[in-house]
Design brief:
Number of strands: 0
Structural class: mainly alpha
Distance between the termini: 87 Å
Strand content: under 5%
Radius of gyration: 28 Å
Low-confidence stretches: none
Length: about 300
């Protein structure tokens, strides 16, 4: 009965916790014969066989699963790990490479397989799963968030930043969320340099993508480099015909941060460029304030 099986499952898990894998294996051998219980216990059974280095039993079981459930790539993922743990790494890597076809047929299994590899300390295989599945989907932005998280876990900040910037470019609504993510995850000076480089490179390739200039302006403001923020905002102002609004914001932030030189530069530009605009009187007033503070 199902109730009896649930009791057995708990008992097997208890044996594993108490470091008695032999006893756990006996229970799991019985449980995997029941198709109703099998999905719930397969992972633990395979894990138990790995602990016991019972490679033949693991391979025989997983081959049978692959044959009877060809549409479930998790079986192949478990088989790849079984091979790898025996030192048969080349065969394991080949098998991971062949999972792409399964993802084409069954995209919802991608996360499950990648997660399994992450849990088993194979970030490289999880990355391959996401990149192969991305290629198969035909969407260059697919799985960007998952990859960013993966690169974050693996300490690969440049790849992480590339994915984050891609997420923002894909959908502008993600901008504030991503700025917060980057604020939380950028710690070292070289990470800031990497982000600046990524944004400048992307802006050169796609000058009409406003997200890149928005992120650069935000980045320079975070760094309190208001002169560079002004240079970027001035270019964006021309390209996107923003009527000086973004520049006004940069000027005010410069004033608040007591960078009167940068503030003067911004308001001088606004006064010259927009003499007929509604922002002119305010820009002129701020310019006077900034110049007075400079003296």
């Amino acid at each position: 009965s199902v109730a009896a099986a649930q009791t057995d499952v708990k008992l097997a898990e208890e044996y594993l916790r108490q470091n008695e894998p032999e006893k756990a294996r006996e229970i799991y051998r019985r449980l995997v014969k029941d198709d109703r219980v099998l999905p719930a216990v397969q992972r633990k059974y395979v894990q138990t066989l790995h602990i016991l280095k019972a490679w033949d039993e693991a391979e025989k079981f997983l081959k049978r699963q692959i044959k009877s459930h060809p549409d479930q790539p998790l079986n192949k993922a478990q088989y790849a790990l079984t091979l790898d743990l025996q030192g048969k790494t080349d065969d394991a890597v080949k098998l991971v490479g062949r999972l792409t076809d399964d993802f084409r047929k069954n995209p919802q299994t991608v996360h499950q397989v990648a997660q399994y590899f992450v849990e088993n300390q194979h970030l490289d295989w999880a990355e391959k799963v996401y990149l192969d599945a991305r290629k198969a989907s035909g969407n260059p932005g697919e799985y960007a968030f998952q990859l960013a998280q993966l690169y974050k876990a693996g300490g690969e900040s440049e790849k992480m930043l590339n994915e984050y910037v891609g997420i923002a470019a894909e959908n502008r609504d993600n901008l504030v969320f991503l700025q917060n993510e980057m604020q939380d995850n950028l710690e070292k000076p070289e990470d800031f340099e990497k982000l600046e480089r990524i944004l400048l490179t992307r802006l050169q390739k796609e000058p009409n993508q406003p997200v890149y200039s928005d992120l650069l302006i935000w980045f320079y403001v975070q760094q309190k480099d208001f002169h560079r923020a002004f240079v970027q905002a001035r270019a964006a102002d021309r390209r996107q015909k923003l009527e000086g609004m973004k520049l006004m914001e940069i000027g005010q932030i410069s004033l608040q941060n007591k960078d009167y030189k940068a503030a003067s530069e911004v308001f001088e530009h606004l006064v010259k460029e927009y003499p007929q605009s509604a922002i002119y009187p305010l820009a002129r007033r701020y310019l006077v304030t900034a110049k007075e503070e400079l003296v």
